[in-house]
Task: structure prediction
Amino acid sequence: MEFSAYFPMWDKLTAAQQKRLADSITPQTAPKGTIVHNGSLDCVGLLLIQSGQLRSYILSDEGREVTLYRLFDRDLCLFSASCMMPSIQFDLVIEAEKDTGYWLIPTDVYKSIMEQSAPLANYTNEIMASRFSEVMWLIEQIMWKSLDKRVASFLLEEAAIEGTNLLKLTHETIANHLGTHREVISRMLKYFQNERMVRLTRGTVEIIAEDKLQELQKV
Amino acid sequence: MEFSAYFPMWDKLTAAQQKRLADSITPQTAPKGTIVHNGSLDCVGLLLIQSGQLRSYILSDEGREVTLYRLFDRDLCLFSASCMMPSIQFDLVIEAEKDTGYWLIPTDVYKSIMEQSAPLANYTNEIMASRFSEVMWLIEQIMWKSLDKRVASFLLEEAAIEGTNLLKLTHETIANHLGTHREVISRMLKYFQNERMVRLTRGTVEIIAEDKLQELQKV
Result:
């Protein structure tokens, strides 16, 4: 598949803008586990995902993580080019959660086209609003939802993404996603197991009563 | 002062766009305490603040609040026109925290100019990125900072905004800003008083040792 088929506003760009973009991109691959962007330490450019999965998270001084959102096929990753906009005043880390193939778009090329093109600027606005919405959802979860509901939601979301109820997840990994400690997650999962909602083995969590988890996650 | 002196991208608009904007705006006032926007219940338009102070917050089902950010003179309030962008998928409430004068810009007028004007679209992007940054800062506070530090930061911020160390604040109000319960705040303030950082009277909190609060709020 061609870049032009993936880039959403392609048809709204001028021929000169299309050429400039096409000449500047490079196809890249990031094996699972690669940190593709690390806060203010780099400004690698925008990433248009061909296939794979990226995870965006924040990191505390003590190394605790909270997952903000995930990006999938055809998503455009803006914040790996956060130097593009002076008002983006936060640092996040972007990690390949699966083997990921993407096109790298240089920050300066994207920025200069966006400054000329109202369609591209408005599209960028919509992407920003989508990510903003995901982060607002997260705040609501953190503020109003108890942890049992958040763990239930997380497991159901993982199952939907992976297409299986047998999840390869350590307690540490779940804790990192939710910004809490391993011990807290272990206690919660043991409770879920006692309630016959999940079955635990070393390194896996198997959902055995999806309906009960669905029920639990409701507010 | 004229609207054109307040509207940031005025000089980058065409004469036709300027005229369309100028013909559509209406000056409004909101006395302190007015709810100027209430989640998905309305889409009143964009507010360009001439003078005053707006507070943006989210509300849980049980009525608990968390302050997201404040807007001051010359700020443009986007989210009172959240229907402008389909990707804005969250509800927030905007309240006049002081008597506020503003120009109301109709959503459809702003939107149609933004769709044509790259400068206005890019400016809107920067505003969105600023608000996003404030919300990211809040997430970091909630996730990584203990409540004593958050209360200290809140009191110092209030003192800076009001220009006085004698703050007219009830414990209920502070709890609403920080998304917690009145009892929790009362306990914390009593601790602050014992540590000789504040002096409490009915309806006021006086900061008597700013340096100690400054020290406390550091991570």
